[in-house]
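Thread title: Can someone regenerate the structure for this chain?

I was given the following input by a collaborator and told the matching structure tokens would be attached. They weren't. Posting the sequence so someone can regenerate them.
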Amino acid sequence: MKRVVCYDVVDDRRRNRIFKLLKDYGRRVQYSVFEVECDEKSWIQLEFRLSALLSEEDSLCVYTLCQSCTHRTFYRGNFTRWLMEDQNPIL
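Best answer:
Regenerated them for you:
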């Protein structure tokens, strides 16, 4: 299942920890936005770890995409270059 994870974290140290955690699970599409594709067990683990890092002043939003929505995803701009580089690691 693919999820889009967006976050707004006040503290730089917590923000860096969340970034590093999400980087291990998905692909960064904007500064504070990641696409994460994983099974339900991995998602529960990630959700637990994210919750432990967040404070009350932070925010986290997760959008779960169905298979049909995933196929209708549209990318434009610099991100298309990143996608091509991910598909061809020689670049």
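Confidence is low (pLDDT under 50) at residues 87-91.
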